[in-house]
Amino acid sequence: GAVVSQHPSRVICKSGTSVKIECRSLDFQATTMFWYRQFPKQSLMLMATSNEGSKATYEQGVEKDKFLINHASLTLSTLTVTSAHPEDSSFYICSARDRSSGGAGTGELFFGEGSRLTVL
Amino acid sequence: GEDVEQSLFLSVREGDSSVINCTYTDSSSTYLYWYKQEPGAGLQLLTYIFSNMDMKQDQRLTVLLNKKDKHLSLRIADTQTGDSAIYFCAEIRANTDKLIFGTGTRLQVFP
Fold first, then answer.
1. Half-sphere exposure of residue A97, counting CA atoms within 13 Å on the CB side?
2. Could you tell me if B51 lies within 8 Å of chain A, comparing CB atoms?
3. Within the 8-27 window of chain A, which residues sit less than 8 Å (CB to CB) from chain B?
4. Phi and psi dihedrals of B81, rounded to 5?
5. Per residue in B27-50, pLDDT tens?
6. Which residues of A touch B30 (CB under 8 A)?
């Protein structure tokens, strides 16, 4: 099946620094990718929809300037947590759909393995 | 409240069947999914069902969908200790790719 790769899988950083997380679709092209955040023992919360070649669409309550999303190509989206603070520590997961599989809502979404961010 | 709700915990004996329930609110949902998440890991797609179906079986897994009541269930037959994990149901709204996740059910299987 299709593979979505996230990197890094774990990252520890100091408060005030910025961290970039990459999400790559390895064997398919993804016009749209999604970024989720998961707090410990909680569900996944959709943060934003990453659109190739255009600005990301953020969900209500998600700070655009805090979580910068860039979808530079059909196989890569990046999430940058700027000026990270301990409350940004979380598990971040991306997903993508093979754009050749049909119209919106018609097929399987593939998930990355997630990136665990710890801000000290 | 949550758009997609699940009971938080389920504990079953090895070899028994497990039934995990999910209720959703959006009648326009086109696909409904079940994902498994093991500790510290990402999501693994188990199965999905299209909204015009009422049942889907895949080996030990049976998905039942009651669209009228907006109720989805996942039955795991002959539950094994390796099935211990958190199970999330999720829905895709019509004409979007946005997955809305349920609250998750932690399944614990004991010998």
1. 21
2. no
3. none
4. -60, -30
5. 777 788 999 999 878 888 898 888
6. 105-106
